[in-house]
Amino acid sequence: MNERVKQFYIEFSEITNDLQKFCFITRSQEFQLEACNTAQELQEKAGKLKQQMISEDDEDAANAMLSIEEMITALLSELRMWIALKGEDADAAWSQLVSAQYAARTAMQAHMVASHLDGYTNHLHDLERVLFPPLAFFSPSYIIEHSTCSICGQEYGECDHIVGKAYMGQICTRVIEKVKEITEVSLVDEAANKRARITKITDDNGIWRDIMTWQVVPNDAANA
Description:
alpha+beta; 3 domains; two-stranded antiparallel ribbon; two-stranded antiparallel sheet; 5 helices; 6 strands; 48% helix; flat
């Protein structure tokens, strides 16, 4: 591993190990906000070092820094989740948990430096199960007419880049440019996009309620 990346990883490990003690509902919000600021500063340093590695054409180091960036994002998102829960903002808390889950997964895809995150991803899954009610998600099926590679911009499938693999500090994704036809939209318990979820349901009396808080919502918001 690049020596500068190695030294940053040591700093990252020391700081994030300390910040993890604030990832509990009982911790003071004052300390959690300070932890967020510290994590943001560390994230900015990681981004700058990643750009240096890219400019030096060191792909392994750039991918390692991408992985570290995403690990910081995961921790920062978890901290924000706890803060949102304390503020009774369940929707924001859910969004932050999903961000943490996605970031942890991306970190593991980007580089072996995050190969130890299995336990943390299980922890985030447990938080989803314990802190939030069962949810249902929308899962669309469609026929793609045109899509491109996020790395090189070519028609997806006509280049050698692979979705989910890191290239010079960037994860390859398939960018959907044009959809020919939406064939169906299904309701599922597990979805690739956990933000595409049902937010309101009716109870046994036909009253519309927020699925997170169970608060009554106006009828005109029922189809929102």
